[in-house]
Amino acid sequence: MSTKTAVWLQNIATAVPPTSYTQEFAHQFMRDLPMYGEKEQRFLDRIYRDTRIARRHSVIEDYGKDPSQYQFFARSTTLLPEPSVAQRNDLFVAAAEELSLRAAEQLFSATDRVRAEDITHLVTVTCTGFSAPGFDYQLVQRLPLRAGVHRYHIGFMGCFAGFPALKLAHTICSADPGARVLIVDVELCTLHFQFKPEPDTMVANALFADGAAAAVVSCSPPDGPAYRLNGFSSRIVPESDQAMSWRLGDVAFDMKLSTYVPKLLHRDIAAIVHDTMQAVGLRREDVRLWAVHPGGRAILDRIADALELSEEELQFSYATLHDYGNMSSATIFFLLQRMLQDAATGPVFAAAFGPGLTVESACLERV
Question: 110, 145, 184, 237: least buried by Cβ within 10 Å?
Answer without folding.
Answer: 110
